[in-house]
Amino acid sequence: MREDSVINEILGDFGVKVPRVLISGSRAVVDSVKKIYVLSCDVVTLETPEGYISILGDDICVETLCDERIELCGSFRGVEIIRQEKKKLRQDRGEAGKQKDVPLLEKEAGGHGKVRRLEE
Fold first, then answer.
1. Assuming Cys at both sites, which of 1, 39, 45, 97 could form a disulfide with 54, CB separation 3.0 to 4.6 Å?
2. Which CATH class is domain 3-85?
3. How far apart are CA 101 and CA 110, in angstroms?
4. Banded pLDDT at 19 (limits 50, 70, 90)
5. Where are the domains of the chain?
6. How far is Cα 87 from Cα 18, in angstroms, rounded to an integer?
7. 81-93 confidence digits (pLDDT tens)
8. Per the confidence metrics, is the pTM higher than 0.70?
């Protein structure tokens, strides 16, 4: 059985929206990619819903990037996975949605456009 046919068979089951890494020979596939943070010939760092994945190697290049999947080629040395805590992710999302309270400004009566800060 050829290596390409095995990889294609595995990739068929590889589309679940969970971060996954498959490295076989000179090919690597990562699913659920949200952003590419670092892209160089010796490291590719990707953001996923669960954290970050760094693929380390030599002569790394991108073959395909579509539908939250990236396919890389090169000589791979290792993988680093940095998982974020669920609690921290929720806090970050909550803080991102909040707007800071901004002191209100009000025109002074008879001040012809002058503004003053309201007491907090």
1. 45
2. mainly beta
3. 27
4. confident
5. 3-85
6. 18
7. 998 776 555 555 5
8. no
